[in-house]
Design brief:
The chain is of the alpha+beta class and about 400 residues long. It contains 13 helices and seven strands. It has a domain of about 90 residues. Strands 1-2-3-4-5-6-7 form a seven-stranded antiparallel beta sheet. Strand 4 and strand 5 form a beta hairpin.
Length: about 400
């Protein structure tokens, strides 16, 4: 890169890192405060608290990076124009591509960062978070819950046991599961024991019964059992085949999806939208650059207000993101939404590029009707016709 390009890249890169760090820290702090219950209510350590909150950072970076790039590009171009540097560059014969090249390099780096987050880091962090939450819930059952107290493990799950037994077992176990509004289940057991098999945590209930109450029926069904396995991983009956959600699956799994699987069939639209959302996310930084450069890339005098251009760029960015979310929602319902997911960032990129190109290289409109030549022709024709008679 030339000296001018390095100068522009240093300004834009510094502004991007500052915006990315500040926005990520603020949003992470607000999310972290929501997880303080891990320390205050569930007796976990600060280390566990930090692990839970840090697993959400890849998703934050993926969302914030294009916004930070947009702010950095606007700041850079506005600063260069405010200090009359853009005007001097244009007067010195510096081509617009020289100004654009360092911004393109920064945008490519941001696109690679977003791609790494959305294609690899985010699904890995979601799976790690699920595993950690499972361990936390098992830890709550085995160590935190006190005898004789009713504790809500999750929304719709109430746990209680009467006393501690030798060997770490629990006596007089009660579990009430009301997550399904149509059916409520209550498990009663004389003895309960926490066990772990293949990195999954289960609660083994012995000598008990399960009472299931249907909301549409008055009578309830009771089933007695000698042993019953309760899955603490997802608070489901242990079948050993917990299905990963679309956001928890790797990109390779989404590409080579088993469409014959019953779980996949039930939410096939969500899997389709998740895959193409990951593939289209790296396109949004490029569209963001096109919007910002089209708005502020052209040099203006200090007397010309740039507030309207900045407002228009912000409005275009908001509309683009709204259209992107709408296309993703449409892709859940129909495969036609997949085309819309790609059309939104690509259409904005092409439109912004054309607008910026016309601003830098204005097209001279050709005068299709030469009124001067027409007037001369009419004048000569009249002179030849009427002059001859005279």
């Amino acid at each position: 890169m030339s000296l001018v390009e390095r100068y522009i890249f240093r300004i834009a890169g510094g502004a991007f890192l500052a915006c990315l760090g500040a926005l990520t820290a603020v949003i992470w702090l607000t999310q972290a405060l929501r997880e303080m219950n891990l320390v205050t209510g569930k007796g976990q350590t600060i280390l566990i608290f930090l692990q839970v909150t840090l697993f959400g950072l890849p998703a934050l970076v993926m969302v914030i990076a294009p916004l930070a790039l947009f702010i950095a590009v606007l700041y850079t171009l506005n600063r260069l124009n405010g200090d009359s540097e853009l005007i001097v560059m244009n007067a010195a014969g510096i081509a617009p591509r020289t100004i654009l090249r360092p911004l393109v390099i920064l945008t490519i780096a941001v696109s690679v960062l977003v791609g790494a987050m959305t294609l690899y880091a985010i699904p890995e962090s979601f799976r790690a978070l699920r595993t950690l939450i499972t361990k936390i819930r098992a830890d709550v059952v085995t160590r935190i819950i006190q005898e004789g107290k009713f504790i809500s493990l999750d929304q719709g799950i109430v746990f209680h046991f009467r006393e501690r037994l030798p060997g770490g077992a629990m006596g007089g176990v009660l579990i009430h599961d009301s997550r399904d509004p149509k059916t409520a289940s209550t498990y009663l057991a004389a003895r309960g024991l926490i066990t772990e098999v293949d990195k999954s945590t289960y609660l083994l209930l012995e000598q008990g019964s399960m009472q299931r109450q249907d909301a549409l029926q008055r009578d309830s069904s009771i089933v007695a059992f000698e042993r019953y396995v309760f899955d603490l991983d997802q608070f489901e009956q242990a079948t050993g085949n917990y299905q990963l959600k679309p956001r928890e699956r790797t990109t390779t799994d989404l590409i080579f999806l088993d469409k014959e699987d019953s779980f996949v069939k039930s939410i096939l639209g969500r899997f389709r939208a998740e895959l193409h959302d990951r593939l289209t996310n790296p396109l949004y930084p490029i569209a963001t650059l096109a919007i910002a450069f089209a708005a502020l890339g052209n040099a203006r005098t200090t007397r010309q207000s740039r507030g309207t251009a900045i407002f228009g760029a912000v409005a275009a960015l908001i509309l683009m993101r709204i259209a992107g979310f709408g296309a993703a929602s449409l892709a859940v319902r129909t495969s036609a939404g997949v085309w819309a997911m790609y059309l939104v960032p690509l259409g904005v990129t092409i439109g912004g590029s054309i607008y910026a190109w016309r601003a830098f290289w204005p097209i001279k409109r050709r005068q299709w009707i030469d009124f001067a030549a027409m007037y001369g022709f009419v004048e000569r024709w009249l002179a030849a016709r009427f002059g001859a008679r005279a």
